[in-house]
Amino acid sequence: MLDADAASSTLGIELVDVGPGAATATMTVTATMVNGHDVAHGGYLFLLADTAFACACNSYGPVTVAAGAEVSFVASARLGDQLTAVAHERTRYGRNGIYDVTVYRETAAGRDVVLEFRGRSRTIEREGDEA
Q1: From 3.10.129.10, 3.55.50.30, 3.40.190.170, 3.40.50.720, which CATH number describes the 2-123 domain?
Q2: What sign does the CA torsion over 48, 54, 56, 59 have?
Q3: Secondary element (H or E) of residue 43
Q4: Residue 17 CA to chain centroid, in angstroms?
Q5: What is the pLDDT of residues 68-100, one digit of tens each?
Q6: pTM of the prediction?
Q7: How far is CA 4 from CA 7, 8, 10, 48, 120, in A?
Q8: Keywords, A to Z (predicted)?
């Protein structure tokens, strides 16, 4: 799925780990991602979290899409920050799932959380699947 994701690859997002219900992706904040306040635009941070979420919820095979998401911006990211998004499944029920994603950067003092994301997924039927 990620190989065909032009939005994520254009931004340099890399998938570094994936397993059942989990994924880790990274991205470096570039000059084109910084807004007029000299911090990373929230849309790019959301996109990184959403990419990790998508990889985690699609790790089981069937096509799964976002049904909704909520994000909390915890700290600003800045030009040159290397960000890591770690997605973990909280629960799956029927064709639905809930996933949490933490986006952070490493500092000398340890991990600095930038964003917390909760995504809701929905597995969709493919043509020929039964409802």
Answers
A1: 3.10.129.10
A2: negative
A3: helix 42-57
A4: 12
A5: 999 999 999 999 999 999 999 999 999 999 999
A6: 0.91
A7: 9, 9, 11, 16, 22
A8: Hydrolase
